[in-house]
Amino acid sequence: MVVSILHRATGVALSIAGLAVLAWWLLAVSSGPDAYATFTKAAASPLGLVVLIGLTWSFFQHLLSGIRHLVMDTGAAFELGVNKTFAILTIVGSVLLTAVLWFYILQVRS
Amino acid sequence: MSLGESSTPIGKVRGLGASGEGGEHWLTERVTSIALLLLGTWLIASLLLLPDLGQRTVLEWLHAPSGAVPMALLIVIGFKHALDGMKVVVDDYVHEPGNNFALNTLLLFLAIGGGALALFALARIAFGGVA
Questions:
Q1: Nearest to B30 among A70, A101, A104 (CB)
Q2: pLDDT tens per residue across span A16-71
Q3: What is residue B18's predicted lDDT score, i.e. its pLDDT?
Q4: Is A29 within 8 Å of B114 when comparing Cβ atoms?
Q5: ∠ CA B108-B110-B111 to the nearest 5 degrees?
Q6: Which residues are CB-contacts of A34 (< 8 A; sequence separation ≥ 6)?
Q7: A95 reaches B (C-beta below 8 A)
Q8: Does B94 touch chain A (CB under 8 A)?
Q9: Does any domain span residue B5?
């Protein structure tokens, strides 16, 4: 139930904020160093980081619950126990992947 | 009620439900999701493998076909998948036909406009000079 709602919410977030950030980023790269500096300044601000980390988590959550939906489309994993375990694993997985990725970006690379 | 009772003979032949459409939309959503599974993983892996994320580095990466072609696919398939998904959300919550049509049309324009903008930026990177 919760995971199904999360799939929808993260999908909407990725559709609106995710694609807007992607388009802005590409426009900034194509426009030159000045425009790119404006983008990176916004991206590195506290609000920018919250948005980017939120989008990263949304991506992983949507990806993992999307895989869960594909598996369920085949008619598998409808047993209550299996279904619940799979649902919980998508949340554990998305939080873990986001944490590892951003720990690497903020602590190891910079 | 089983499908056999509720559907017309032609509907039964085509496998359609009450809406009269949707089979193709359902399948497209899933096929694009598999493509985005690959392209999304490619994007994150590429960003991690770049030496840095400066404008020059990103420009050179997306100037090469190995960067530009997957990015073009990501834009087109990403906006298509987003549009398909948003339509499901709109159709679930906005039932009044006029509002439903208006919102779905707005989303269509936003998706095509946003996709065109992103593709234009990518084209400028891919076909422009790297000086």
A1: A70
A2: 999 999 999 999 999 999 999 999 999 999 999 999 999 999 999 999 999 999 99
A3: 60
A4: no
A5: 65
A6: none
A7: no
A8: no
A9: no
Is the CB of A63 less than 8 angstroms away from the CB of B37?
Answer: yes
CATH code for A2-109?
Answer: 1.20.1300.10
pLDDT tens-digit series, residues B69-120: 999 999 999 999 999 999 999 999 999 999 999 999 999 999 999 999 999 9
Q: Does B112 touch chain A (CB under 8 A)?
A: no
Number of domains in chain B: 1
Assigned domain for B89 exists: yes
Q: Least CA distance to A70: which residue of chain B?
A: B30
Boundaries of domain holding B96: 21-127
ipTM here: 0.93
Task: Flag whether B16 is in a domain.
Answer: no
- How many Å is the Cα radius of gyration of chain A? 17
**Does B52 reside within a domain?**
yes
Cβ contact, residue pair A11, B121, below 8 Å:
no
What CA–CA distance (Å, rounded) separates B61 from B130?
A: 10
What number of other Cβ atoms are within 10 A of residue A66's Cβ?
Answer: 21
